[in-house]
């Protein structure tokens, strides 16, 4: 499992010019089963994605497809972790 943290590198008016393309990218990754949750940071300085993949290189390849990455809109930090405890609702993450 991976946490992808995006941090905007440009003003929000520029971010907003690519937001529709970014949302399409997110929808594609959800459909492919790669993303499990995503949303904005508060305050709006970037976003966070909860992703699943076999290895870091798989996640890096997925990130390369993001219009925010292609256009230099955001920097990405990827944190790999193995869930060891969850709420009942998220128990499926333990498998």
Characterise this structure.
The chain is α+β, with helices and mostly antiparallel strands. It has one domain (2-94): Alpha-Beta Plaits (2-Layer Sandwich). The chain is built from four helices and four strands; from the N terminus they run βααββααβ. The chain has helices at residues 12-17, 19-31, 56-64, 67-70; strands at 2-8, 35-40, 46-51, 74-80. The protein has a four-stranded antiparallel β-sheet with strand order 2-3-1-4, covered by helices on one side. The protein is globular and about 40 Å long.
Distance between the termini: 11 Å
pLDDT average, as an integer? 96
Q: Number of domains in the coordinates?
A: 1
Helix-strand makeup class: alpha+beta
Name the helicity range.
25-40%
- What is the count of helical runs? 4
Q: Segments where pLDDT lies below 50 for 5+ residues?
A: none
CATH homologous superfamily label: Dimeric alpha+beta barrel
By CATH, the topology is: Alpha-Beta Plaits
What portion of the residues fall into strands of 2 or more residues?
25-35%
Oligomeric grouping of the chains:
single chain
Q: Outline the biggest β-sheet.
A: 4 strands, antiparallel
Using the 3D structure, state the CATH architecture. Answer: 2-Layer Sandwich
How many individual β-strands?
4
Which strand order do you get reading across the main beta sheet?
2-3-1-4
């Amino acid at each position: 499992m991976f946490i992808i943290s995006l941090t905007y590198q440009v003003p929000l008016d520029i971010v907003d010019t690519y937001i529709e393309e970014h949302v399409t990218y997110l929808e594609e990754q959800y459909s492919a089963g790669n993303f499990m949750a995503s949303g904005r940071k508060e305050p709006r300085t970037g976003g966070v994605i909860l992703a699943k993949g076999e290895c870091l290189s798989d996640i890096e390849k997925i990130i390369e497809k993001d219009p925010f990455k292609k256009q230099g809109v955001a920097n990405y930090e990827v944190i790999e972790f193995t869930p060891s405890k969850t709420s009942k609702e998220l128990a499926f993450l333990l498998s």
